């Protein structure tokens, strides 16, 4: 499965930024050893259900350290029997774009 998630603790920087808290979450994901990527809006992680959800839980806890509330947005692509889709899905789209040139 692939999970795309975003965490946002309340009471962050006075300017509304949450980059420090998000960096704590991303560190947890990267240290998990599971395939992952981070973009401006989400962190994506790929693996089996239990291992991915355990990492998401730890990432939310890390981002929310010191906050009374954390918002979590999560989207999952559950496709048993498929691995390496974090990159393969993008490669298929790029192939279609190239074919249309």
Report what the structure shows.
The structure is a single chain. The protein contains three helices and four strands; from the N terminus they run E-H-E-E-H-E-H. With 101 residues, it is α+β, with helices and mostly antiparallel strands. Strands 2-3-1-4 form a four-stranded antiparallel β-sheet, covered by helices on one side. The longest helix is centred in the middle third of the chain and has 15 residues, at 49-63.
- Number of DSSP helices? 3
Largest sheet: 4 strands, antiparallel
Q: Briefly note the structural class of the backbone.
A: alpha+beta
Query: How far do the termini sit from each other?
Result: 31 Å
Number of strands: 4
**What's the pLDDT, averaged over the residues?**
93
**What is the strand arrangement across the widest sheet?**
2-3-1-4
Report the principal-axis shape: globular
Strand content: 15-25%
Report low-confidence residues grouped into runs of 5 or more. Answer: none
DSSP helix fraction: 40-55%
* Helix and strand element order: EHEEHEH
Radius of gyration: 15 Å
